[in-house]
């Protein structure tokens, strides 16, 4: 079923003029990277979305911060139930959808219902509730009576609190206006993450890169070992044997294209200088560089 979800998602994205890159073979924290203009989507798919691992979710959150990407987890079900069309779920704070909901999203039919702790809730236009209530000359108590709730609840709605779809529909009927807000995932979902960048780099080679003035975010479950901020635009892998270096370069090129970044594979005692236009840099070469711009000069030269 996961394969079906990925095939369907790829077809949907390509039909909407996204450029799609597949990372499934690398067992990455994301399966697809899709770009269109300034929008980058990272897709992770499961049959059961409860299979998402916390360490993978953490690295996906790092990528949201690094690449201004939008992460979407796709699936068919949770341990408790099937994912419903038109409902946004969450796994480790990452938006989670059914493939049908994803199709609607790409067709600009934005969802409005969110599943939160087993309950389905909607966000309301708080200002419109207050303005419309006053236009109709209703007190808080009178509106509360019309929707069979308390004055305190209506006050909370006017302060921006979410509620059930049933209550929202009663409010819309009483105030004769649309109040439920749609959720535009393409604008990104606020995700809080601390320590995107690593302060202590134990890997000696990456430490040399860090010493050139780059901030580095380290990864264990991505198609690359480290990334700089998007402003510096560099994704890094490490290779061991000649064959491993070549394999890492081919994989890194996909990441480089998907994220619009330069790529670099660090190797030890190699004569290779580039593979598939991806620069290969020997660890000893890093010691000859003193500034980030020296590294970028070297990379651009080897990319050609």
Automatic annotation (TrEMBL):
InterPro entries according to UniProt: Cro/C1-type_HTH, Lambda_DNA-bd_dom_sf, MTH_967-like, MTH_967_PDDEXK
Kinase as UniProt keyword: no
Family annotation (SUPFAM superfamilies): lambda repressor-like DNA-binding domains
Pfam families: HTH_3, PDDEXK_19
Domain of life: Archaea
UniProt keyword terms in alphabetical order: DNA-binding, Transcription, Transcription regulation
SMART domains named among the record's database cross-references: HTH_XRE (SM00530)
All copies of domain HTH cro/C1-type, residue ranges: 129-182
Coiled coil: none
HAMAP family per the UniProt record, alphabetical: HTH_type_cro_C1
Name of the protein described by the UniProt record: Putative HTH-type transcriptional regulatory protein CL943_02090
